[in-house]
Amino acid sequence: MSEVDGAASASGDGSSGSPDARPLPRGVPDAALAEYEALAAVALTDAERWPLLDADGFARLQTVRDHPHAPEWVHVCGDRVVPDDVPLLARRADETIDRTWEPQEETWARPTWVDALVDRVATTVPRYRAQARRDGRAPRTLDDVAPVSREDLLRDLASFVPVDVPLDRVLEGSSSGSTGAALVVPLHPLSTAAEVVYLTALAAQAGVTWEPEPGRACLLNVVDQRTAFTYASALTTKGGAPMARINVHPDGWRSPGDREAFLADVDAQVLSGNPLSLLALADLDVDLHPLVVVSGAAHLTPGARRRLEGRWGVPVVDVYGTREAGLVAADLDGARAADGSTRHTVLPRRFHVEVLDTDGAPVPDGERGDVVVTVDDNPYLPLLRYRTGDTAALVRERGEDGRWRTVLLGLEGRAAVRFQTADGRWVPSVDTTQLLQAYGLAAWHLHQDADGTVRLAALPARPHEAAGGRHAAPGGGAAGPGGGSAAPGGGAGPTGGWASTTGGWSGASALDAALRALLGREVTTSVVTRPRDLGPGAKRRFSSDLDV
């Protein structure tokens, strides 16, 4: 849970002057990552962040914040749940049990609420109002709606926000997505708080009762990267119990031993993170007693699942979702289909999943296609036929309780990748994501050969402007920190034969230097001008012949 206060980005517009004008803040390894300066973007008071938190809840939160071994918290955020949200959250909890949103027929069927959503969106969302004016008629059913993609949101996010919804409670979330360019997503406190409701339901399905325990953190979200947003918070949906987002990377802590001491003391009930961060946590010499482990954001391999289950002896739930759409589906036990495919059951929420072909037509049940979702529980971003960028096959299965469920078979597009430094350390791909976004790339493919060589195919957001704009590196110059000349031209990337420019983007030299400092290896960059030149696959941003 990484909702933020909605404050302006600390990175500014990239015109703050030379990066040498002042020392880098503690915990900020590169001038392009200034937004990770501790508490540089704080906009609300605690009372505004947690309107329903009582004195005891604030005391428990402060205990985590002020823990003698706590990391240096980088951010502050709360769930902003208000009294009117409470009955709605309770209703969503009930819906996870009675599954009222899901059709109970054996064959795939569209829930009745979907076309009602289409009718409402057609009159309130600018994108579809404009289409109705252009086409002379508004869409009446989902069949009348063409799929949209993340690129559509990047191009004009405001056109997807309903005009009749007050914007006074907007939370700001970000998504790196499948193409690489960061997307800021408007979130509603109700929809973000509901994620805890859904995780509680998943824990129950795995045989775990998740109720707060005195003296323990309710939830610990774990990352393992060089720089990260970390914070202590409280969950209104869990009676104000404390939670935290922490970075297990050694650079995220003030003193040796702090990491293990803090983790042991808060002893969180639920551990969540991506597979690599959870594996890093499992490798630490610290005695934890989770009730359940929740893995997400990347594919959980059978070996990683066995390692986590063996380390803590509790259920491991693999969740699939996107920041734009929320939690989509989950695999509770790692059971595979007859052909060895993974199985992720769609969550019982106001959520409709289709599998479509590239032209937007439904494929038969059991055949692979693009995962496309229709969502109606974020008032700020109702989505009609949104392509997630992943692929799967859809089937209907009857559960042990006799109820029909929708299952996604063989989800693809969530591979976790690491890069090896010259001295043998492993760097998660998220560390490179931060740099590649900060230096103004719209998309990329970073690959490491078996001999350790690193090659980057880069698609600048504005090649002719040399990485200008919001994600440009600080320093004001076109090349970012350190200046430098144009990228080397030509050369074959990991997928072979990328079309590339020769000297078309002057920011490449500075980015190469930043990657070289991170990985301790030389980086060869090819600048491409078309997304398709990055090679096939929805999420081929990273690959490695070393981390297999």
UniProtKB/TrEMBL annotation:
Segments of skewed composition (Low complexity): 1-21
Domain of life: Bacteria
Bias-annotated ranges (Gly residues): 474-496
Region (Disordered): 1-27, 465-503
SUPFAM superfamilies the record matches: Acetyl-CoA synthetase-like (SSF56801)
Name of the protein: Coenzyme F390 synthetase
